[in-house]
Amino acid sequence: MPPSENWGALFPLALALIFASLVVGYLLGSIPFGLIFTKLAGRGDVRQIGSGNIGATNVLRTGSKGLAALTLLFDVLKGTAAVWIGWHFGPYAAMAGGLGAFLGHLFPVWLNFHGGKGVATYIGVALGLYWPVAVGFCIVWLLVAFATRYSSLAALVASAATVGGLVFTGDLPFAGLFLLLTVLLYVRHAGNIQRLMKGEETRIGESKQGA
Fold first, then answer.
1. CA-closest candidate to residue 96, choices 158, 34, 173
2. What distance in Å separates the CA atoms of residue 159 and residue 165, rounded to the nearest whole number?
3. Residue 136's Cα: distance from chain center in Å?
């Protein structure tokens, strides 16, 4: 069979595998670990306290650092797992898996599409695709968080720096993916951005709602 005919036959299969990776990633990303862990620990519904978010930052408001750390770990790992599954079918399937996991965390089908803000899963996707990106994100996050004590600002700066770094190194497919993830992350942080501009954002260690 000529190469062109080969490609014509394989293209639908490749698309199917990419789509399947997206769906599997979405289902993985939709698992609300923060809600599951707090309920199993008898801490109630994390959506009823603090900011109402299901992520590790709000889980910390239950008073359990252990539950918050566990939530952070599993929200990272579900992004990494989705990418790892996709890698079995090639880089584009891996990227689709990562995108699916991120969308699943932000808009989980089990919670009427009201999910978290995506920072931990963003790191997990980066870890699965190209681990230096995840390390760079964490370094920038730590520097900004230490300097300002704003967790949200640290995430916003670190995600923008991630895209800039990937463009600079010429990793354009990954840069395109992380640009999309970053835009979604900014959308989910719209309230935080407004509070930052007004000087009303909660600092790390404070107990006000809305972070």
1. 173
2. 10
3. 15
Quote the CA–CA distance of 136 and 142 in Å, as a whole number.
Answer: 10
Is pLDDT of 29 > 60? yes
The pLDDT tens digits of the residues spanning 34-93 come to 999 999 988 888 888 877 788 888 888 887 889 999 999 999 999 999 999 999 999 999
